[in-house]
Amino acid sequence: MTAAIRGDASSVCNVYQPNLAVSATSYTATGALVAGTEYEVRVIFITFDPPGLLPVCINSDRIDYLSSCELTPDPTTIEVGETQLLTTNLVANTWYVSYTRAPTAYATVTTPDNALPYRTTVTGVADGTTLVTGNVYTYATPPVLACSDTATVTVGTVVVSANPWWQTIGGSIHTQRTTGTVLRSRLPAGEYLIKRVTGGTSGLLSYGGGTVVLVGGTVSQDGWKAKSLYTGKTMNYAYFAKNMGVATSGQAKDWAGDAMTKPAYNANKVFYYQDPVGTASLAAVWNVANGQKYVVFVNGDLEIDQNINVAPGGFLAFIVSGEITVDPAVTYMEGLFVSNGNFSTISKYVAGVTNDSRLLVEGSVITWGSIDLNRNLGDAANATLPAEQVTYRPDLLTNMPDRMKSFALEWKEVPAGTFGE
Questions:
Q1: Chain centre to alpha carbon of residue 188
Q2: Rg of the chain over all Cα atoms, to the nearest angstrom
Q3: Is the dihedral of CA 14, 15, 18, 22 positive or negative?
Q4: Most confident option among 5-19, 67-81, 148-162, 295-309
Q5: Whole-angstrom Cα distance, residue 362 to residue 337?
Q6: Which of 74, 193, 334, 371 falls 20 to 30 Å from 268 in CA-CA distance?
Q7: 180 conformational bin, left if phi > 0, alpha if psi -120 to 50, beta if neither
Q8: E strand or H helix at 397
Q9: Is residue 331 a contact partner of residue 361, using CB atoms and an 8 Å limit?
Q10: Which helix (H) or strand (E) holds 243?
Q11: CA contacts within 13 A on the Cβ side of 242
């Protein structure tokens, strides 16, 4: 018996390999597969003994072979010696993704990557611009180039005063990341990442390792920073929900829809609960008065699309199991914001057309994912003003409901010689 895989080059079939051995599994593609296209795989077994018979069996299947070859972020800017991860956004395994750059003088790339997520680490070498290409190869012998995408990487050539940057006032900053660029704020000359509260001292910058990039500025007036990992309790959604009595299932919602209006204050109400169908949001501006305390659990994602004000003596916490995103229209938000996922600000910036407004946060942002700050004030304002600024509010800790409070002292010895690095 002779077996064959047959097909015509079309939108759903571009594979043809005649006269395969009985145990053969390889094939030859007549053209590159297109990301997002559904392909049909058809196996036809034909026997010639006795001659003239029709195929004894035909078996078909349809598969989504590829998802996307998009390489992100694009564009991006790094300093000399800084690293940036670029990701080829596939959602299914492929054979491998190779990465190149041209010209080669300005950056290096790691290549290839053989497993999800498919990534390359770009390291800045010299001032200039390079084009990184990600080439996706499919399972075949030899491997077939399915698709490619490019991303522009600029190394060290952006004017510092034009860069958006962020800053905190008082308080401390910590990141658990240990490799690569763990924290970046493109500070103008003479600026500080952590600025002193008037009459007070600076907070501490602590991080697990890797590189901190501050461009023209420094950590703080006091210069306090150390390589140290947090080893205490994971105070995330599950932790606070358990402490405050949120049911693991069947908890009653306090809003009928996804948009949340601030409820009338009830001193006996321990917490409020939202389980959105889509993404939770704010129906109007929230104003929390002196003496009022609100703890809001969101079992899902939260979009903050209205301003939030918490008067001295008041308290507000949003504790979110998913991600928190901040709409470009929001200019101030006050309270404690905790998320299991990422915390990100959305930008409406278009160079020369539309600038973002500043975002002023009073309180604390704690995320067990990553923080992605994207606002851009435009060249003139970027020279002197941070696009996002977080001011520490110690009164919020004082006003915190007792059931949220937990004393947990955990520390890890700083490796010798690393304090102040």
A1: 25
A2: 27
A3: negative
A4: 295-309
A5: 10
A6: 334
A7: left
A8: helix 394-399
A9: no
A10: helix 237-244
A11: 7
pLDDT band at 64 (very low <50, low <70, confident <90, very high): very low
Cis peptide before 103 (omega within 30 of 0): yes
* Distances in whole angstroms, Cα of residue 113 to Cα of each of 99, 117, 122, 295: 8, 8, 13, 44
Q: What is the pLDDT of residues 226-250, one digit of tens each?
A: 999 988 889 999 999 999 999 999 9
Structure token digits, residue 46:
């034909």
Tokens of 305: 């699309």
User: Which single residue is written with the structure tokens 């200039």?
Assistant: 128
Q: Which residue has the tokens 């003596």?
A: 313
Examine residue 386 and say whether the peptide bond preceding it is cis (omega within 30 degrees of 0). no
Helix, strand, coil share of the chain (percent; to 5)? 5, 40, 55
Mean pLDDT of the chain: 83
Q: What angle do CA 119, 122, 126 make, to 5 degrees?
A: 170
Tokens of 245: 């009595």
Answer yes or no: pTM beyond 0.70.
no
Token digits of residue 228: 């140290």
Taking the C-alpha atoms of residue 106 and residue 131, their distance in angstroms, rounded to an integer, is: 10
Distance from C-alpha of 382 to C-alpha of 28, rounded to nearest angstrom: 54
pLDDT digits (tens, 9 = 90+) for 345-399: 999 999 889 999 999 999 999 999 999 999 999 989 999 999 999 999 999 999 9
Residue with tokens 């000359």: 189
Provide the pLDDT for residue 291.
96
3-class SS of residue 239: helix
Residue 5 has pLDDT above 60, yes or no: no
Q: Nearest Cα to 169, choosing from 199, 204, 205, 195?
A: 195
CA dihedral of residues 129, 133, 134, 139 (deg, nearest 10): -160
Amino acid at 66: L
How far is residue 63's CA from residue 293's CA, in Å, rounded to a whole number? Answer: 53
Rounded to the nearest 10°, the torsion over CA 324, 328, 331, 337 is 0
Q: What angle do CA 94, 97, 103 make, to 5 degrees?
A: 165
Chain position carrying tokens 């390489």: 71
Q: E strands along 218-341, which residues? A: 225-227, 259-260, 272-274, 279-282, 286-288, 293-298, 301-304, 308-310, 315-320, 324-326, 332-339
All residues at 6 or more sequence positions from 142 whose CB lies less than 8 Å from its CB, including other chains:
none
Q: In what order do the strands lie in the sheet with 107-109?
A: 71-72, 83-88, 118-124, 107-109
Distance CA 387, CA 162 (A): 12
